[in-house]
Amino acid sequence: GARGMKKITMEEVQRHRTKADAWTVLGGKVYNITPYLKFHPGGVGEIMRCAGRDGTVLFMEIHSWVNYELMLDKCLIGYLLGDSARLL
Ligand code: HEM
What we know:
Number of domains: 1
Bound molecules: protoporphyrin IX containing FE
Number of helices: 4
Shape: globular
CATH topology: Flavocytochrome B2, Chain A, domain 1
Distance between the termini: 22 Å
CATH superfamily: Cytochrome b5-like heme/steroid binding domain
Radius of gyration: 12 Å
Helix content: 10-25%
Order of helices and strands: EHEEEHEHHE
Largest sheet: 6 strands, mixed
CATH class: Alpha Beta
CATH architecture: Roll
């Protein structure tokens, strides 16, 4: 739930950009997508393009119909802090 969720800077997100430790931002929410990588129907290489950065635009360009909030609910680790937040 939202309560107790961490506020995370973009600088912190950028430190997590490897397959062993991949974070991304979607709609202002920060997700640890590491456990999901191997299940991505589009392949690991594709989803890794959003690792360590804000993946919102890329994600929406490819598959805006995919409900990432539902899918990645267990991967939610916090919210992007401050003016680095990028919403569509
Ligand atoms: C397909 C989830 C990020 C590229 C899919 C599908 C899901 C999904 C559920 C199947 C969609 C369907 O069949 O209707 C996710 C999640 C992501 C993510 C949860 C982020 C955390 C990305 C990114 C890219 C990408 C960043 C590209 C840069 C693709 C491609 C397919 C696909 C190309 C089509 C695969 C195919 O049907 O051959 N993704 N995706 N995805 N995804 Fe992602």
